[in-house]
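Exercise: predict the fold of this chain.
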Amino acid sequence: MKRTSNILIVAALATGAFLAACNRGEHNRKPGRIYMPDMYESRAYEFYNARLSGMKPVEGTVKRGEVLPYHLKESDTALANLVKNPLTITAADLAEGERLFNIYCGICHGTALDGNGPLYKGGEGPYPAAPANLASGPKAAYSEGRLFHVMTYGFNAMGSYASQLDRAQRWKIAAYIKSKNAPSAAPAAAAAPATDSAAAAK
């Protein structure tokens, strides 16, 4: 009987000591020995330093807010003509496309899209070759997909703008260019039947 009571006393003391060791203040600010300091006190990284900010995202991932990657190769111009704009273009997107066009494209192609920007000036500027006329001529017939393809890979003397403009920005510029082409093309198409009917009436 005495032996049993001694065991109970020792067990009670051990339990009390264990519970006392676990309870060290209101918020347990002294957890005791740290066995894995790297896990407990992890190193804080400065995400805006040159090494981390220059790291590429994990392969196969798409960052939040970014459109899906563009998989066509530079030579796939026929397929590029068929690619549709993945963005739902709003008036704000067209305004942003115009702003970006004037910054990155207007210097060569001109703010009127006529290929007569400040670098060319009708042949009097520092750039000797005439940039593409996006308002009329064969380049005006390019689809949004082809315009995006040209901005992605470059074409002839024009270099790629993929490093300056992200995918969404390039699509907005393509939509802006087509929006400037559409109004001029629609009246011409509408005027043609009227001319034919007038000729028939005579």
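Check your answer against the key: Residues 34 and 40 are 7 Å apart (CA to CA).
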